[in-house]
Structure formats: structure tokens, C-alpha cells
Amino acid sequence: xxxxxxxxxxxxxxxxxxxxxxSCDDIKNVLSATDKDVLIEKxxxxxxxxxxxxxxxxxHNDLDMIITLxxxxxxxxxxxxxxxxxxxxxIKTIKAGAKGFLTMDSEASQLVQAxxxxxxxxxxxxxxxxxxxxxxxxxxxxxxxxxxxxxxxxDSAALSSRQIEILKLWGDGMTNQExxxxxxxxxxxxxxxxxxxxxxxxxxxxxxxxxxxxxxxxISI
Length: 221
Prior knowledge:
By secondary structure, the chain is an alpha/beta fold. The protein is 52% helix and 15% strand. The chain has eleven helices and six strands. It has helices spanning 11-21, 36-43, 60-72, 87-96, 108-119, 127-140, 154-157, 161-171, 176-183, 187-201, 206-215; strands at 2-7, 27-33, 50-55, 77-82, 98-103, 124-125. Strands 2-1-3-4-5-6 form a six-stranded parallel beta sheet, sandwiched between helices. Helix 3 links the parallel strand 3 and strand 4. Helix 8 packs across helix 10 and helix 9 crosses helix 10. Residues 147-154 have low confidence and may be disordered.
């Protein structure tokens, strides 16, 4: 059985998704919410494999919400359904932690396909989003294309190359032990670097650190 949760600020859309998923024998929706705080609070009492989040236009606050959910409930994979297909928003949404991205013009059957695929440990994107990601990849192969490193702001410029490297690995989902093993340093050294990063940037939590890494293009896809 795959356990899902649904979030959308419009009750009608939530009910439409609920009704559609009810026809799937091995998918059970255990939580629906139209309020962000209610969703975050109630998720702690439930096992949720796939969280379906619907937006029309994705804002910075919505990206922050995805980051918060990713950090607080890492075992719940996030599937975003949105109207926006702007490249920068799509990329930032995936960097924020979405494992799947469907556009509003996707077929309803793709929603179920996405749930199965994500539950199986893989990412899932609609055709239009796949095209955006492919174009993004092709652009990185162009030597005349500006690199993400050029997009760092003044705050990230204050970090050493080692600190940026550690932040990038951590943002990509590696544990402190995995980072230490990869860089041939101790776990204590990794923790010290992360503490120094937060002090330099005047950040107070891991969620704030993740937001910083996404907004400054330190995390890649």
C-alpha cells in the first residue's frame, strides 16, 4: 500500500484528487489539507510515502515550504503539481526537494504513474518539465554558457571553496559521515565547517542553510 497526503489551498482541487486516487486499490490517501501549518503538524502522526502539493504559481514562500517539509519529513517524497513552467522556478522547485513535477496540463493517469515511480525511488517529470531539464543540461555543455558559480551572491563569496564543497554535498543529501568519507576528513571537521558556515552567514537552522544553498545555486541537479 502507498500512503499519500494532499495539499492545495483550494478545497475543490483537493477533493478532486482524493476522488481520483480513491479508485486505486493500492493507494490510500491518509491526509488532506488546505492550510500549510495544519499539514506540517498532522504529518508527524502519519506514515506518508508521497506528498502531493498543488500550486498555481510557485512563490518563494512555496519553495520555503517544500524545503521545510523535506527537512522535517525526509521519508515523505514530494510530488509537485503546478501551473508554472518557468525554467528558473522548475529548477528551484526540484532543488528544494521535489522528487516529481507535473504541470496542470498533465493527464490524470500521470498522477498515479508519478506516485508509483516516486514510491519506487525514482524521480518523475511530465514531458514539458523533462524538456526543460534536458535543455538545462544541454546549456551546461555549452562553454559560452555562464556557470552557476557566477550566480553566487556576496554572502556566498565569503565562504571558502572547501565550505562551498561541503555545503553542496550536504545539500545534495549526503550525511556528515558520507561527506567525511568522500573528502577524506573526519566527521568532526565536517560539523565544524557547517557551524562556521552558519556563523558566517548568520543562519539559525538547517532549514535556513538549505534555503541559502538553493537561492545561491550551490545545490545542483
